[in-house]
Amino acid sequence: xxxLSKEKTKHFGFGCERREGIISGRFFCYRFVYVVSxxxxxxxxxxxxxxxxxxxxxxxxxxxxxxxxxVIRELSGVILNRGPKLCNFVEWRGYKVVYKxxxxxxxxxxxxxxxxxxxxLEIIHHYVEILDRYFGSVCELDLIFNFHKAYYIxxxxxxxxxxQESSKxxxxxxxxxxxxxxxxxxxxxxxxxxxxxxxxx
Amino acid sequence: MNPFSSGTRLRDMIRAIRACKTxxxxxxxxxxxxxxxxxxxxxxxxxxxxRNLAKLMFIHMLGYPTHFGQMECLKLIASPGFPEKRIGxxxxxxxxxxxxxxxxxxxxxxxxxLNHSNQYVVGLALCALxxxxxxxxxxxxxxxxxxxxxxxxxxxRKKAALCSTRIVRKVPDLAENFVNAAASLxxxxxxxxxxxxxxLCYELCLINDEALEYFxxxxxxxxxxxxxxxxxxxxxxxxDVAGITDPFLHIRLLxxxxxxGQGDADASDLMTDILAQVATKTESNKxxxxxxxxxxxxxxMAIEDTSSLRVLAINILGRFLSNRDNNIxxxxxxxxxxxxxxxDQAVQRHRVTILECVKxxxxxxxxxxxxxxxxxxxxxxxxxxxxxxxxxxxxSDEDFKEDLSAKxxxxxxxxxxxxxxxxDQMLKVLxxxxxxxxxxxxxxLIVVISNASELHGYTVRALYKAVLIYSEQETLVRVAVWCIxxxxxxxxxxxxxxxxxxxxxxxESDAVDVIEDAITRHNSDSTTKAMALVALLKLxxxxxxxxxxxxxxxxKQKGSILLxxxxxxIEYNSIVDRHKNIxxxxxxxxxxxxxxxxxxxxxxxxxxxxxxxxxxxxxxxxGFEKPAVAPLVDLLDLDSDDILAAPSSSGADFLQDLLGVDxxxxxxxxGATQGxxxxxxxxxxxxxxxxxxxxxxxxxxxxxxxxxxxxxxxxNALDTxxxxxxxxxxxxxxxxxxxLLDGLSPSPSKEATNGPAYPSxxxxxxxxxxxxxxxxxxxxxxxxxxxxxxxxxxxxNTFTDFIFQAAVPKFLQLHLDPASSNTxxxxxxxxxxxxxxxxxxxxxxKSLVMRMRIGYKLDGKDVLEEGQVSNFPRGL
Lengths: 201, 876
What we know:
Chain A is 45% helix and 20% strand. Chain A is an alpha+beta fold. In chain B, the strands form 3 sheets. A 5-stranded antiparallel beta sheet of chain B has the order 3-4-5-8-7, with no helix packed on it. In chain B, helix 5 (82-95) runs parallel beside helix 7 (119-132) and helix 26 (474-493) packs antiparallel against helix 27. The radius of gyration of chain B is 38 Å and the shape is extended. Chain B: Residues 756-873 form the GAE domain. Chain B: Belongs to the adaptor complexes large subunit family.
């Protein structure tokens, strides 16, 4: 068994498109190119509202566009229908989906059978706290109108489906530094356009 | 915003979309926006680009196609400003994935940005590369990333480290280039860099054995020290989560130790202390602490044997299991499944708690617990556990019953201490969840019942009682109908009472009521109805006093909409009506079904999950599929071995057998050997009662089998003699047989088969030699065709040293049996037969072809003939 758990990440598949057909509990499809496929920890991140509206999706494993919508439909069906006091894990297509509800939003992350579900729960919370700090008590509307900001923050937290930073402060600092850069560029642009506007008056 | 820009702002678009009341409205808004964006893209105005892309991303998130925006991402990435690049990279990651060709175009921009002077631009490029790079890009850009691992800014180092994990996942050959850089990251102080560095090392260890050895030698102590420092560190507000300093780092360090310790006693030894410390000192009242403990337990169980630590780990899991938090209980169940391999006893101690978890309201926990319970069952606790599970089956949710009943059946079959217990438990499952029980499970039950001769009476009475109450459980009804048909007399006469039974009075007409109910109930499926019909035929002989009533029920089925039922009803009616003298011997009890062959066959068909695909499904001329007989055939066809046709059978033998069944049979027990072989078909089942004495064995089995063929061919001969009767059987088979079968035409083929019939062909004909092929298929394997080749000498001289050779293309496999002789008499005065087995790996796509060569001696001269057969019937 120990050997098995070591080998879990060494699935040699051809290409990476997922399809329903189980090879050692995993969904693989064989496509044209021979590619060795190692698993990431988090396959995708999904934010859905209570009404089933998608608020954010981030895919770290390749899923075709059609599959993405199918996955979202299927999962939101499963997760939104679960009762309030149940555990935060759902087994789905040989994977586990860890989800947590914050107000009207469900944060979901899909991981492998062998990964640490409790840690992923902690990562979700970590992300929510950073969002909260950034927006100042974040609400769903913040994430709708500033969805790109939510993505920027996620990109400072996860890369390749792995955790990048455990300090909320560091993430906040890097994000604000980049926002600063954008502001500066914007001001420059508007001052130039003002000059042009005045010149053409 | 930009005063020159046209079109709506992002915020306005989102508002407009949110204001939509219906999906149609939303589509209209999106369509309009997309049209605007396309127009702007065509104008190629750089000012609007980033706003257009932001809009597209939102539209994309709603699930609309946005492929036309892909090139915009590339343009934005190529533009010099940071804001453009930032949104461009975001769009790239959202709208594209690694499989799109467009992605290759971005390689050059990425390369430039990885060398950019602004570290945030480098960060964007690394992030994009880490999230979506393909194998080719990974190869192209690996040197840049490798260099960036040593960059001065920690923000870049950590991003480069994670980007490297993706690169080595995509291209494992590159792993060795990263080993040194990864090792240097382990000495970092910055948590972000450390976390990503540990992750990279872990990944390299999994991918490359040399890397694993390297890290094991050079870094084990360093990693242990880092873990110790972090565990003992004072409160650090920046990294503190519920009293634990950086649980994320904890977990990654433990995970790295796991691969380092696995399979290496020395390394495992080194980490014992720190693992013990983590396992004992970590606070377990919050999720973060439990996450660390969970990882720690996993590491303890993976590394080389340190039994004291394992006790500690099992204790932690025990605590987890009794925790009130559902999440913790869930992971405990998960881990106990792994723990069971090295400490079964310790897990057994928690059996009661685990059983409670099976009854949890949470489906995820139930599922885990059920899997675990299945692993826990052994000979000693099977009775108790089964009782608990069956008790729960009565009250469980409908949607859980399927899983639960499948597991119970599995346990009961595997560990059953005795037959009575097995039958009892299975009956309970059938009563509670008969709808969900798979075919192979109830087939197995019937085989067991058939073998337990001393329990026949008990079983049939128990089933009778059960079916009165649970008549909606389909599989229960089937088993009951089968048993009442077989052992109806035992039911009525209370034969073979066991001490535990209460006597019941069942009249003959009560028993028939049950069957009638099964056959007339509108929601019975065709298998049940077909089984009920057979049961009625059997009962007509067992209960002569009410055979008129039984006949009436059978006659009603003549009007069934199922062709199969009609046909059987006509046949059975005829048996009941006109053949009273042979009826009782026709419908005698089924011979005991052979358990061993059934199990072998079942094991063979398991991967296909006992699918119906294995059954022969004959498509009838009127387009009606033949559903009714297939499951029955499956049930009765417990022996998949083909019985080789000995060419010496004659119709006279057959008739003698058919009519002389009683005379020939010495005792019903001797049928045990014969039964499973002959039990290949429904009609056959009726005919096989006459258990011939061993001396008659070979001839009679063949005869039965030829009737089996008749049965398969009856489909096109409902009440006419429409199909062509081949001469050799028509002349030899007696008219009595036709009478019995009411004008059913016999099939031409003589060999054992119960698959669909195929017409014979003349495979080859020359002036001196004629070769005929007849075909049959074993029902469980559609790829295989049994071909019987018959060689006929048309010349006036005898052929000697006759050799037949055949060759097939690669997608076929050919197996030749020895020929019946090597001398072929002249002028068709006899023939040689030879069996061929062809397996078509492209079944359904390609049809058979065969090339053959025939050599023989004619008057002492060698003659060689060659030919190709391409006129095989379709579908072989």
